[in-house]
Amino acid sequence: MLFSPLTIRTATLPNRIVLPAMVTRLSGEDGRVNDDVRARYARFAKGGAGLVVVEAMAVHSAKSGPLLRISGDEFLPGLKDLAGACHDAGPGAVFPQIIHFLKISRSGWRQTVDTLSLEDLDAIVEAYGAAAARARTAGFDGVELHMAHAYTLSSFLSRMNPRRDAYGGSLENRMRLPVRVLERVRSVVGHDFPVGVRFVGDECIRGGYSTPDARVMAVRLARAGADVISLSAGGKFEDARVIEGEPLYPYTGYSGDRCMPGAAYADGTNLPIPEAVRAALRESGLETPVVAAGKIGTRALADAVLAKGQGDLVGMARALLADPDLPRKWRDNREDTVVRCVYGNVCKTLDENFRRVDCTLWPKKLGQAPESDDVEAPTWPVGAGLSCSAEKGRVLLRWQPAADNQAVYGYEVLRAEGDGILVHYASVRGVSQRFEDARVAGGVPYRYAVRPYDLAGNRGPMSATVSATVRDGDGDGQPAGDARAVDAALLDACTGDRRA
Ligand SMILES: Cc1cc2nc3c(=O)[nH]c(=O)nc-3n(C[C@H](O)[C@H](O)[C@H](O)COP(=O)(O)O)c2cc1C
Ligand code: SF4
Fold first, then answer.
1. Do residues 318 and 260 touch, judged by C-beta distance below 8 A?
2. pTM for this predicted structure
3. Ligand 2 nearest-atom number relative to CA 360
4. E strand or H helix at 259, and its extent?
5. Rounded CA gap, 386 and 384, in Å?
6. Residues near ligand 1 (Cβ within 6 A)
């Protein structure tokens, strides 16, 4: 089913794999498409995803950091090139995600929806309509309206919406602006152009809404003309970590964790959300397809999502960042060559720091996932060994480089706690032959092994297993991959705890 096509109004997706929008910070402050942006999305398209949703681009000209823009006709030539490059590279459909956001400042102040006049709301509706028309003119196959996370339309949908007029209070009122936007977009783009919406099915904040409201929203938005509903979770300002002198980043609190669930969360942790929303649509006689997302990284889980009716499409952001060729590899039954995301969230930390969002496993300076059709796996030189020492609350692993006919791309680090089984715990770039494990508890024995992989993802043999125990009371238990500061060590490995 994963590789069966799905038609969304006029766009036929060749398979059910979706790249959900993922800011890359490649555009620069001018908001224009450049070579890096084009190359990044062409690479995703080439990998074979059925739908590539291009990262959020602004419908208005408010100041922001590096962010793509679709707020004026001057952006059209670049957007045309982007749509064309994706279509030339792969078979999937391409939709841009379009966004309106409110002002934030370094003092921690942020504009809230109750400060917007009725004229401001009219302008937002118009800006979305004009941007969607540009998306069509640029040659995209559809458009996705961003109603998720901490941004304007999501803040209207929110239970924390403080307005006291017809745009706040009841769920019907909170939906008024998003529905107006959708209706305006539909009237501008016509009936032969797909329009999707993305919103959160659970705000994941105290006092926020959850699936009972999301079920109603989905039905209302589908009836108002949404052709596909993509569900996210959390990502709110309300629980964002306050850092003096820094603008609030809405993914630093618990709701941010739920939006981009890290290694400590279960695979598919947010699936009850699309499942509940899709059921509401079907109960209302609506066949609107639903995109499920949130730590879906294995073929078995993706198949299960479709089989259990938890979604019609499977959204994978970080898994496709780590390996854009994942759809082709799955289609060809080569899952064992997928370079796996370990959900250590280094990419999220880069975004948070306005740095270009690369997967930290990619070869440095390439700025892209490598490409290769090689089938020969790496090998260990005779006598190569893995050594391990425990000091200052950390375990340090070192090994000799593996050999490959092309190049060793990286090493999977496998770890077992006590008598447990070895699981894929971290991945390290091929240039590095060391890994420091700071996430250890004192007094607990750990076993480790290392496995090399090449540019095509072919895995070599597993090394011998070594063990270590740090002194009781010495382990600091700190996760290595989720810190705000981006330091050099962080950029050489991504640490998670996936099964081998
Ligand atoms: C670096 C980064 C940037 C993101 N930017 C966006 C965005 O522009 N719009 C959006 O709706 N979601 C954004 N997301 C959320 C993803 O689309 C996705 O919902 C989330 O990462 C969970 O899916 P995953 O577990 O497959 O990564 C972003 C996620 C990451 C990691
Ligand atoms: S940086 Fe880490 S979390 Fe992000 S895509 Fe790469 S492996 Fe996954």
1. yes
2. 0.94
3. 1
4. helix 254-259
5. 7
6. 20-23, 55-56, 97, 146, 148, 198, 232, 259-260, 293-296, 315-319, 347-348, 351, 357
Per DSSP, helices labelled H in 386-429 are: none
**pLDDT tens-digit series, residues 301-341:** 999 999 999 999 999 999 999 999 999 999 999 999 999 99
Nearest alpha-carbon partner for 54 in 63, 65, 43: 43
- Phi, psi angle pair for 413, to nearest 5°: -100, 125
Question: Residue 268: nearest ligand to its CA?
Answer: 1
User: Regarding beta strands 290-293 and 313-315, do their DSSP bridges make them parallel or antiparallel, or are they unpaired?
Assistant: parallel
Give the end-to-end CA distance of the chain in Å, rounded to a whole number. Answer: 25
**pLDDT < 50 positions in the chain:** 477-489, 499-500
With the most atoms of ligand 1 within 8 angstroms of its CB, the residue from 22, 57, 251, 318 to mutate is 22
Closest atom, ligand 2, to C-alpha of 340 = 7
For the sheet with 466-469, list strands across it.
Answer: 466-469, 445-454, 408-417, 423-429, 493-499
| DSSP 8-state secondary structure symbol assigned to residue 244 | T
**Structure confidence at residue 480 (pLDDT):** 42
- The atom number, within ligand 1, closest to the CA of 233 reads 19
What pLDDT sits at residue 384?
Answer: 83
Give CA separation, 55 vs 58, 66, 84, 295, 390, in Å: 10, 12, 16, 18, 42
pLDDT in tens, 171-198: 999 999 999 999 999 999 999 999 999 9
d(CA 374, CA 376): 6
**Is the shortest distance between the CB of 130 and ligand 2 below 6 Å?**
no
What's the confidence (pLDDT) of residue 475?
57
Alpha-carbon separation of residue 402 from 54, 369, 393, 462 (angstroms): 37, 20, 28, 11
> What pLDDT was estimated at residue 161?
97
Residue 493 CA to ligand 2 centre (angstroms) = 9
Q: Which residues of 418-452 are buried (b: 16+ CB within 10 A; e: fewer)?
A: eeeebebbbbbbbeebebbbbbbbeeeebbbbbbb
359, burial (CB in 10 Å: exposed 0-12, middle 13-18, buried 19+)? buried
Q: Which ligand has an atom closest to residue 492 CA? A: 2
Report the distance separating Cα 161 and Cα 71, nearest Å. Answer: 26
* CB-neighbour burial class of residue 406 (10 A; exposed 0-12, middle 13-18, buried 19+): middle
Burial of 112 (0-12, 13-18, 19+ CB in 10 A): middle
Q: Give the pLDDT score at 492.
A: 65
Q: What pLDDT sits at residue 499? A: 44
Nearest CA to ligand 2 atom 7: 341
Give how far Cα 64 sits from Cα of 24, 25, 28, Å.
14, 11, 10
Give the pairing type, strands 493-499 and 423-429.
antiparallel
What H or E segment, with its residue span, contains residue 8?
Answer: strand 6-8
